[in-house]
Amino acid sequence: MSAPGLQALATDEARLLRVLDRTFEGWGVDGGAESMMMPVLLPVADLARLDFYDNFPHQAMLAVQLDLQKWDSRPTTGVQSFDPSVLEPALLGLPSAACFAVYLSMQGERLTDNIRVTVLGNCFRREERYEGLRRLLSFRMREIVALGDKEHVDAHLAEYGNRISAFLTALGLPFEIQAATDPFYDRGGQRALLQKLSPVKQEFIVEDLAIASMNIHRNFFGERCDIRSATTNSPVFTGCVAFGLERWLSVLYSHFGDWASAAAMVEKAALASFGKGI
Amino acid sequence: MSAPGLQALATDEARLLRVLDRTFEGWGVDGGAESMMMPVLLPVADLARLDFYDNFPHQAMLAVQLDLQKWDSRPTTGVQSFDPSVLEPALLGLPSAACFAVYLSMQGERLTDNIRVTVLGNCFRREERYEGLRRLLSFRMREIVALGDKEHVDAHLAEYGNRISAFLTALGLPFEIQAATDPFYDRGGQRALLQKLSPVKQEFIVEDLAIASMNIHRNFFGERCDIRSATTNSPVFTGCVAFGLERWLSVLYSHFGDWASAAAMVEKAALASFGKGI
Questions:
Q1: Rounded CA separation B227/A223 (Å)
Q2: CA-CA to A65 of 20 to 30 Å: which in A158, B168, B182, B234?
Q3: How many Cβ atoms are within 10 Å of B39's Cβ, its own excluded?
Q4: Given this model, what pLDDT does residue A192 score?
């Protein structure tokens, strides 16, 4: 498997990824999150409704079927690719972030409470170039998502932001928190103004790599997916913390020098990160 | 998310799926398996080399990028699908089984020992119709794969077959083992003859649904992927046991009546399934 951006994880790498994922999932469950699982594919129509193809057309990957009439049963020996002319229209997309599926799976819901949801998503981003575990086409993202009123989302990001900082500190990983932009809110005068006043995306940078982020979506997904408060009937606010798991592998390996040491240190820091509430 | 064949798993379903997956992964690790992780996408050229598009063109799903030149920046509001004319050629495929990635990731290797590998794969099958958790487009498959000499593969399937039977019996799930055919070996005189003499695929059927299978590939993947014995230089034999995890959810829910009872019974049966060696 020599394709750029695709990488198999051997036992030691896979073990560390699982330890990290269980830790972050556990943080979510600690905070009352429902731990769900999502399908890998999402309907194009749904992603389009979230402005995905306006904002990220360069990253977009579609899932499409062979048109059996057009393909017929030509011999496939030596085939390197399929021409678009033998493909059916693309009805499904491969998401670039894990939380889209959460909002889409909750379409039309009326929430009686502030809630949290955590998911491990397979994510896909077409890039100009790929780079080891730092930049992949097919990668894994753990997210802990908050849905509810604005105060709930603000508290969620503050609490989990602190937890990430404490965890990185316990691991001895030097990091910075940097404001970033998110194209979901670049357009429209009021949103653009708001974004200038308060950043909607903050990233945890280790070794020049964003390994985690905190994201404020305001009520964008609540509106688009018709997820509302049962009491006020207003679209919910949402926000998430996201962990790029292969990127964590990359910086941990680089910092600790081997997979076993990295896993031992993460296990230790993870243990200390529980039992304090959030 | 109303698309046929795509289903989100809520907390209770996801919990049961994880218990099942940890159990089957644990059986693999018990038997010395390396527990790896694979990218979701695989190169079309590699899958074609495994005769995938000859054998399963009707199931095939491709992953493809938007052609930004052709798509330009048309507004995507209300978009339901993308026409093939705005897609790039498809270089990547979505696999229909978890073990393809294992053989492809080991291309060119020379094995000094008989080995086992276990993976949880996201799998994709285009179907005429989808049906709840019984028949999905995007689903999860745990596999435990054996690579080595023929005796190793035969012993692997016998041992894990017994383990599956014992587990189903402990759960009180009535099951049958049925021989099935596998298109990888339908063609060519000698292979077709061999298949008639001894079945290459056996399925565990519960409630008319194949929830697990045992598969003999002979040295097909060893040949195609140039995975050889370091001592004899012959292509290795391979075989796998595979678990369709959402299908297990479906029959367990139906049998036990609710998710919590099903999870409790599976935890109990899983505990009893360890510590006996294989």
A1: 53
A2: B182
A3: 26
A4: 55
Of B4, B61, B8, the residue nearest A225 (C-alpha):
B8
CB distance B38–A13 less than 8 Å? no
Alpha-carbon Rg for chain B in angstroms:
20
Residues A42, A97 contacting (CB under 8 angstroms): no
Q: What is the pLDDT of residue A198?
A: 63
Residue A209 host element (H or E): strand A209-216
Q: What is the pLDDT of residues B170-206, one digit of tens each?
A: 999 999 999 987 665 555 555 555 555 566 899 999 9
Q: Confirm whether A20 is domain-assigned.
A: yes
Which B-chain residues 93-132 have CB contacts (< 8 A) with chain A?
94, 101, 104-105, 107, 122, 124, 126
A187 touches chain B (CB under 8 A): no
Whole-complex ipTM: 0.92
A165 in any annotated domain: yes
Mutation choice for B interface testing from A16, A29, A40, A96 by most B CBs within 10 A: A40
Residues of chain A contacting B137 with CB distance shorter than 8 Å: 39, 41
Containing domain of residue B132, as a range?
A: 11-42+94-273
The H-or-E segment that residue A242 falls in is strand A237-244
Q: What is the pLDDT along chain B (278 residues), one digit of tens a residue?
A: 668 999 999 999 999 999 999 999 999 999 999 999 999 999 999 999 999 998 888 899 999 999 988 887 677 778 999 999 999 999 999 999 999 999 999 999 999 999 999 999 999 999 999 999 999 999 999 999 999 999 999 999 999 999 999 999 999 999 999 998 766 555 555 555 555 556 689 999 999 999 999 999 999 999 999 999 999 999 999 999 999 999 999 999 999 999 999 999 999 999 988 865 44
Q: What is the CATH number for A209?
A: 3.30.930.10
| Residues B247, B255 contacting (CB under 8 angstroms) | no
What's the pTM? Answer: 0.94
- SS3 label, residue B171: helix
Q: How far apart are the CA of B78 and the nearest CA of chain A, in angstroms?
A: 7
Q: B42, A1: Cβ pair inside 8 Å?
A: yes
* Smallest CA–CA distance from B35 into chain A, residue: A11
Q: How many domains does chain A have?
A: 1
Rounded Cα gap, residues B251 and B170, in angstroms: 15
B88: which residues sit within 8 A by CB, 6+ positions away?
A: A84, B64, B65, B66, B67
**What are the structure tokens assigned to B219, written together?**
């040295």
Q: Where are the alpha helices (DSSP H) in A31-149?
A: 44-49, 52-55, 68-71, 99-105
With contacts defined as CB-CB under 8 Å, which chain A residues touch B9? Answer: 36-38
- Best of A87, A88, A103, A248 to mutate (most B CBs within 10 Å, chain B): A87
A149 belongs to a structural domain: yes
How far does the CA of residue A85 sit from the closest CA of chain B (Å)?
Answer: 6
Low-confidence spans in chain A with pLDDT less than 50: 277-278
Nearest residue to B229 via CA among B239, B238, B242, B241:
B238
Does B123 map to a domain?
Answer: yes
Give me the phi and psi of A112, to 5 degrees please. -90, -10
